Amino acid sequence: MSDSLPIPLSPPLTAAQQTALVNLVRRASRAEIMPLFRTVTRAEADTKSGPTDLVTEADRQAEAMLARGLQRMFPHALIVGEEAVAENPDLRDAVAEAELAFIIDPVDGTWNFVHGLPLFGVIIAVTRFGRPVLGLLHDPVSDDWIIADEASPARLAAALGSERAIRVSKGGDLADLQGYIHFYLMPQEQQERVAPLLATLARCFALRCSCHEYRLLAQGAVDFTLSGVLNPWDHAAGVLICQQAGGVARMLDGRDYNTAITKGFLLCASNQPTWHRLRDHFACLLED
């Protein structure tokens, strides 16, 4: 066999295991998340790193259910949830060393959830030594999900059995690009450098929900995402899904994404030319 021929990748989970994973997430959404939607109040939510970083019983109970189910299905895997890391930060570092890890964001977009906005989701990422190999982005409100692994394209599926491949946008010139930038999570000095650059793009905003930001990127509704807060439960699944929908996802300095990276900016874009235009446009962020 010629060395130039590509070596087929084996999926990290079998088709049956992926179905079981999706079913587990859907059960957790029905049992622990949706019953509290528009019933939990802001006063009942706790805070973590700041006044807008909220956590509720839906987060805690959904993560516990998902962690139990995943550990039963994959007894030798490392299971890491966002809320568990909040209690024990050392768990985050263990992901990059694990041969197989599952990273859980039980309710991504908790601020939206608490304030009654139907813009939140469940994120599951599977990693090998910190490298994403499978991503799942589930919308509990519509009960549909985007899933991809490194051996198959990204596709949107729904409860009634429909499934279709999805694709990123065609990108374009800077003046035509729309995307999500986590501007208000940047330190003030970075905001001051980046703010003048935003006016040259078509539109920049944020949904306060990485799950839906990556879903829309993978479906071609926007052209890019840029984030400097590198929580793996927010990004690992979306990076893989972006790539398997035809996009490019790398650190702004050109490195491949890995959960071990804790500093820098992650830029995901619809194609290579668009990624390079945006990288050059935001090169000031590489000065830090």
Automatic annotation (TrEMBL):
InterPro entries per the UniProt record, alphabetical: Inositol_monoP_metal-BS, Inositol_monophosphatase-like, Inositol_monophosphatase_CS
Lineage: Bacteria, Pseudomonadati, Pseudomonadota, Alphaproteobacteria, Rhodobacterales
Binding-site residues for Mg(2+), renumbered to this chain: 82, 105, 108, 234
Keyword Ligase: no
Species assigned in the record: Roseovarius tolerans
EC id: 3.1.3.25
Molecular function in Gene Ontology: inositol monophosphate 1-phosphatase activity; metal ion binding
A biological process from GO: phosphatidylinositol phosphate biosynthetic process
Transcription regulation keyword on record: no
Cofactor: Mg(2+)
Keywords: Hydrolase, Magnesium, Metal-binding
Family under the similarity heading: Belongs to the inositol monophosphatase superfamily.
Top enzyme category: hydrolase
UniProt protein name: Inositol-1-monophosphatase
PANTHER family: INOSITOL MONOPHOSPHATASE, INOSITOL-1-MONOPHOSPHATASE-RELATED
